[in-house]
Design brief:
303 residues; alpha/beta; TIM Barrel; seven-stranded parallel β-sheet; two-stranded antiparallel sheet; 10 helices; 13% strand; globular; binds fe (iii) ion; binds zinc ion
Length: 303
């Protein structure tokens, strides 16, 4: 959701179309650095009258950051920018910031992954008190981008000094473009079993719920509106209904204009997939809803 007019304005936009989760940038996403947030900006976000309507709010870091950058200036900028964005997100009491792990620029997979892990260590060392975690995002594997297999994310997590400060964000368009088959019910279930085995179910912090313009295994990252891409509706039906995803925030990253009509249509398409058969609402489901409310109240300070 756009933060034009200030971070608090994003809350109003999201609530105006009945979102229950929201992803924002904590500053202009095409610039390296920005002036710090003022105390008033922070208060107008945290204490916003509509803030409680959003069960989950988190951030995505800017697109310039590459922790595996080979250019020393780019790499230094990436470390500093990530540390600053983590601090901003922490001031806004956001639980995590989503980040693409990085692109190795020709140095190779393992060298790239090691550089990313070392860079994350450096960033966390700069901001020891920040509670906001980094959610590593699964990527499409375009160019030399890393993070297109669950194993690559697991390697990073296994090689940092503070793995408890990392979690994972799964992007449906990216995993599909990376080659995971989520076009059938069996395929989706298999993919998430794979996720659980390699990364652990509890690492999943958020889902980017996007359809893909490009085919399975294309390694090309192009998002499509729900139901208008190559993935088909089965993956979305599963994600919208399986009890394990009930507490996982899901956000759209699909093309949209200022009026947000595309967001409204995509949310409608997703919510339409939710099984309304009351017999399918098991006791486990109602328990999830209750604990979800508790988690919402306790907010991000809850460890
Ligand atoms: Fe992303
Ligand atoms: Fe994404
Ligand atoms: Zn993408």
């Amino acid at each position: 959701m756009s933060i034009a007019g200030g971070v608090h304005a994003a809350i109003e936009r999201a609530c105006s179309i009945n979102c229950t989760a929201m992803q924002i940038f904590v500053k202009n996403n095409m610039q390296w650095f920005a002036r710090p947030l003022t105390p008033q900006e922070i208060r107008s976000f945290i204490d916003h009258a509509q803030r409680w309507q959003l069960a989950s709010v988190f951030a995505h870091v800017n697109y310039l950051i590459n922790l595996a950058a080979t250019n020393p200036q780019f790499h230094a900028n990436s470390i500093r920018a990530l540390a600053e964005e983590l601090m901003r997100a922490d001031q806004l009491e956001l639980p995590f910031v989503v980040m693409h792990p990085g692109a190795h620029m020709g140095t190779g997979e393992e060298a790239g992954l090691r550089k990313i892990a070392a860079s994350i260590d450096e960033v966390f060392r700069c901001v020891p008190k920040v509670k906001t975690r980094i959610a590593l995002e699964t990527t499409a594997g375009q160019g030399s981008c890393l993070g297109h297999t669950f194993e690559q994310l697991a390697f990073i997590i296994a090689n940092v000094r503070e793995p408890e400060r990392l979690c994972v964000c799964l992007d449906t368009a990216h995993v599909f473009a990376a080659g995971y088959d989520i076009s059938s019910h069996a395929g989706v279930k298999k993919t998430f079993r794979e996720f659980d085995r390699v990364l652990g179910r509890e690492r999943l912090a958020a889902i980017h719920i996007n359809d893909s313009k490009t085919g399975r295994g294309s390694r090309v990252d192009r998002h499509a509106h729900i139901g208008e891409g190559e993935i088909g509706l089965e993956a979305f039906r599963h994600i919208m209904n399986a009890p394990r995803f009930r507490k996982i925030p899901k956000v759209l990253e699909t093309p949209k204009g200022k009026e947000l009509t595309e967001d409204v249509a995509n949310m409608r398409a997703l919510r339409r997939l939710i099984a309304l058969n009351p017999r399918k609402r098991t006791r486990e489901d109602s328990r999830c809803i209750v604990s979800n409310e508790r988690a919402g109240r306790a907010g991000h300070r809850r460890k």
